Amino acid sequence: MQQAKQLSTVRRPVTPTQPTRETRPETQKARRLRKVKFISIALTCFALSLVVVAQYSSLVVTSYSLSEARAELSSVRESAREYELKAAQLGAVNRIDQIAREELGMVEPEMGQLKIISASQSERYRPGE
Fold it and tell me: Is the pLDDT score of 10 beyond 60?
């Protein structure tokens, strides 16, 4: 035990290890290389993040355009339904008959006023007759 104390108390001369001129440039080169690698990795990550953000913004713009187009399509379909309903109402036979009688003053033809013409395939049409 005493020997251990003596060994620990014995002072040995410590020589500082100074890097020689030959090893110093290597460490500087290694540091520069690490810095270049770090900067290139950081720039690559930044560029990739910009690409991801651009993709998401493009997706948002496309989604917005799609929702606008769907809203416009819905509006056009509703207008088309309204016009079809209006055309069906205006083209109803009862309405046409009512307008013809009330506004235009038309009346039903009498039996003597009607002439029934039959067209058969054997007869030829002769213009001017």
Answer: no
In a 3-state reduction of DSSP, which class is residue 93? helix
Asked, for residue 67, whether it belongs to a domain, the answer is yes
Name the token pair of 91.
């083209």
Structure tokens at 7: 């060994």
Q: How many domains does the chain have?
A: 1
Residue 123 lies in a domain: no
The answer as to whether 9 is a domain residue is no
- pLDDT tens for 21-79 read 555 667 888 999 999 999 999 999 999 999 999 999 999 999 999 999 999 999 999 99
Domain containing 83 equals: 26-106
> How far apart, in Å, are the Cα atoms of 28 and each of 16, 20, 24, 47, 122?
20, 13, 6, 28, 112
User: Hey, what are 62's tokens?
Assistant: 């496309």
Please report which confidence band the pLDDT of residue 87 belongs to, taking 50, 70 and 90 as the band edges. very high
Q: Which two tokens stand for residue 109?
A: 């033809």
Sheet strands (E) in the chain: none
Half-sphere exposure of residue 84, counting CA atoms within 13 Å on the CB side? 6
Residue 5 lies in a domain: no
